[in-house]
Queue: 3 jobs
Job 1
Amino acid sequence: MTNVTQNRPLSPHLSIYKQIPTMVMSILHRLTGMALYAGTILVAWWLIAAASGPEYFDWVNGIFGSLLGRLVLFGYTWALVHHLLGGIRHFIWDTGHGFDPQTSTKMAWATITGSVILTVLIWIAGYATRF
């Protein structure tokens, strides 16, 4: 009996390919989609705490108001904005536009740059409206 696995070609792995912006954005789009599931659980926890009474709500707000909590919420905001912009990028591709390498690379950089800028602006607006 021969060993058939030795004669089979190996599939290339991510470490073999040169990482280009569109590939990185594709991976980030999937990762932010998964992160949104965890963030949505946090939003649901916050809403349940609000419905449970002032003591429990204050406790949950204290967690979200801590430095670690704010970092997690900032990351959730970035994941939400990045995933939204990635979805818009995919929608543009669905219309048949933006497939040439220069345009797709520019759109990838615009997605990451736009998501960071919009996230910071959202947080600035949030802090500006606090009393």
Note: The chain is about 75% helix and 0% strand.
Job 2
Amino acid sequence: MPELKSSITGLGNQALSTVPPSAIRAVDNKISNIPGIIKLTLGEPDFAVPEHIKEATKAAIDANWSHYAPSFGYLELREQISQYLADRFDAHYQADGEVVVTVGATEAIFATIRGLFNPGDTIIVPTPEFPLYANVAAICGLNVVTVSTAPEFVLTPARLRATLAAHPEAKAIVLNYPNNPTGATYTHEQVRAVAQILADTDLVVLSDEIYAELTYREDHISMGHLLPEQTILISGFSKSHAMTGYRVGYVAGPAALIKLVGKMHQFLVTTAASPMMKAAEEALRHGRTDGTDMRDIYRQRRDLIMGALSKAGFTAPTPAGAFYVFAKIPATMPQDDVQFVYDLAERAKVGVVPGSVFGPGGEGYIRLSYAASTENLEEAGRRIQAYAADLVD
């Protein structure tokens, strides 16, 4: 094993050194060796990729779709994305110049933040929120302003106005709805109120809508429809088609911004993988309704785990989208959410994520993913109830 030359031990990106590794993965890794544990930690659908998409992937490999694709992605896929966004959300983007296919939504977020902003710029991140946004912004040298949305878990007009007044220098705001980790999403009235306020600003809106097909109340309204002239729309196929390992996402927005995002994307990865893009094309050509059955099962699982948590003394707003429950730890239980999560894992053999890793407003909560089998959720519910009963005794 080589040892690093002593004279270069101080090398490293200073901004990167201030950002911890993924806290969600750290918790998942730490508890994974507990025998018999049921993990409700990751946002990983337990469904298989639909058969017609798998067949399209195999066919693409057999047809030698193995070479470099255009940097922005195959035009045929971008045309399908453009048509899908128009048909589904009344959000209109030209396939040529206003859409970039990325290596998952994660790369889309990095390419967008790195491509559009400079060190020292300020970005607003409502919390609780997926930690990636703030971490990527910090790595890129941006100033991150967080604003807690607890306990409603949606950004209210009053909170938004107050944040904008306190930070007139802000260049962008992140919106993620349906939300990870809370499962909250905006009603039509709420999202229109937010859009109306943002329309009077020069903020770029980074709208992560990857859970748009997983809504249980009202149909999703996209910021790409409400505020197209200043929105970067981020999405992908991981949640709607259970294609997490295929790593296909996309960015859509005004051409002047997409040109910059696309250039950064080119320098980061050159292009997404050719067979995976053909799989994504098939998903949109013939599988737009693939997620409907998944969504209906998720709704049943949501109700199942919500009932079990309620019996154990937890309170949580009913998730209106995605596949997460963000539950308040009962006052009768340890209130340090990190300590609680590890105690629950050791004693009840149920793995969840502490709410504090999702930023201000998440303290004292836990996130459970119900993108797990019904059998595992039923058993996890029984174990959590037994754990709660033991604490009372």
Note: The mean pLDDT is 96.
Job 3
Amino acid sequence: MTQVPSAEAAIPFTVTGDDTAAAVGSGSLPVLGTPRLLAWCEAATCAALDPLLGPGETSVGTRIQLEHLAPSTVGQQVEVTARLAYVDGRLRRFSVAARNLGPEGPGALVGSGEITRVVVDADRFLARISG
């Protein structure tokens, strides 16, 4: 196991009608849909990892474990954080969390989990799948 470098990101999002379960096809309610929460968590892992990538490198998601624990309504601000927790070769595992934001700062935990990404050479990756 390689020593884990410090890498983290926090990104605020505001829930819109396009982010709801009804809009993304994951239910009928006008609250933050799990697929959108997942996309936001992945965006936070990319933001945390990007500064550590070398020229021509990118990362691809390979494993996701996410619990959606509380609702967020349209207009609600949600802060999503990602922290690099484990490194092994090209593998990077992140702890992710999302919290509703209120006037006093972070509030209810909306979701938490782990996302694994693998660092790849972008050109080689694309050449392999286009051939």
Note: The chain has a mean pLDDT of 94.
